[in-house]
Specification:
The protein is an alpha/beta fold and about 240 residues long. It has one domain: P-loop containing nucleotide triphosphate hydrolases (Rossmann fold, 3-Layer(aba) Sandwich), CATH 3.40.50. It is built from seven helices and ten strands. A six-stranded mixed sheet has the order 6-7-8-3-9-10, sandwiched between helices. A four-stranded antiparallel sheet has the order 2-1-4-5, covered by helices on one side. Helix 6 links the parallel strand 7 and strand 8. The radius of gyration is 18 Å and the shape is globular.
Length: about 240
């Protein structure tokens, strides 16, 4: 799978009537099995770029293509189905449902279906929780879990529908350094072990350098692109 963004422009209307240009002609590509870090200061356009790559937000200008097909040429319902089948999202603030336990938080993205299908999804959710090191925590609610454990639940949820691309927006921003490194280890192992692609937004150069490639955004433009340590063999 190849994810390609070409000449992407994105802007937002401001309360004072002006327009804020967030992305300015960004072009990039993510290949199957590759980890890519997007670096930049706050306000550089990192999260907007991730939303465009994940087909959450259409660009005002430019194209998003997956395996050569234009994502936004589809009807809205088709885009939604495609997004759900292709991308898994991991957010800094976890976005777990506080009244549901870890097992249900992971299984709920595939809530629809028969009772038999629902049981099968719960079995898959249980396996995913074990894969991220949370066996035995299935019935714990978010408030009973540490920040690192909540982020592990969020990663398991992102993998529930077997996405081809995992998009992570500052997934370590609310964690202490040791726990944050564990989360990055886990995300990178998902790419290595399961052949998925990872796009990781961060402001931390050390984290970015662990990915195959790093892209540095400055004021909505790509200022620099280089291999990380993981991709040093490709130089």
């Amino acid at each position: 799978m190849t994810l390609s963004l070409t000449d992407c422009h994105a802007s937002f209307d401001q309360p004072d009537g002006t327009t804020l240009d967030v992305l300015r002609g960004v072009s990039m590509e993510v290949r199957a099995g590759e980890s890519v870090a997007i670096l930049g200061r706050s306000g550089s356009g990192k999260s907007t770029l991730l939303n465009v790559l994940g087909a959450l937000t259409p660009p005002q200008r430019g194209s998003l293509r997956v395996d050569g097909g234009d994502v936004w040429a589809r009807k809205p319902a088709q885009v939604a189905r495609f997004r759900g089948a292709t991308f898994g999202f991991v957010f800094q603030d976890y976005l777990l449902m506080p009244r549901h336990n870890a097992l249900d938080n992971v299984a709920l993205p595939q809530l629809c279906g028969s009772v038999t299908e629902w049981r099968g999804r719960r079995r898959r959710a249980r396996r995913l929780l074990a894969d991220v090191g949370l066996a035995g925590k299935e019935h714990a609610r978010p408030a009973e879990l540490s920040g690192g454990q909540q982020q592990r639940v969020a990663i398991a949820r992102a993998l529930m529908r077997a996405p081809r691309v995992v998009l992570a927006d500052e997934p370590t921003g609310a964690l202490d350094p040791d726990t944050g490194n564990e989360i990055v280890d886990l995300l990178l192992s998902v790419v290595a072990d399961q052949g998925r692609s990872l796009v990781l937004v961060t402001h931390d150069l050390e984290i970015a350098d662990r990915c195959d490639r790093r892209i540095h955004l400055v004021r909505g433009e790509i200022a620099d692109e280089a291999n990380g340590r993981a991709g040093a063999g490709n130089r």
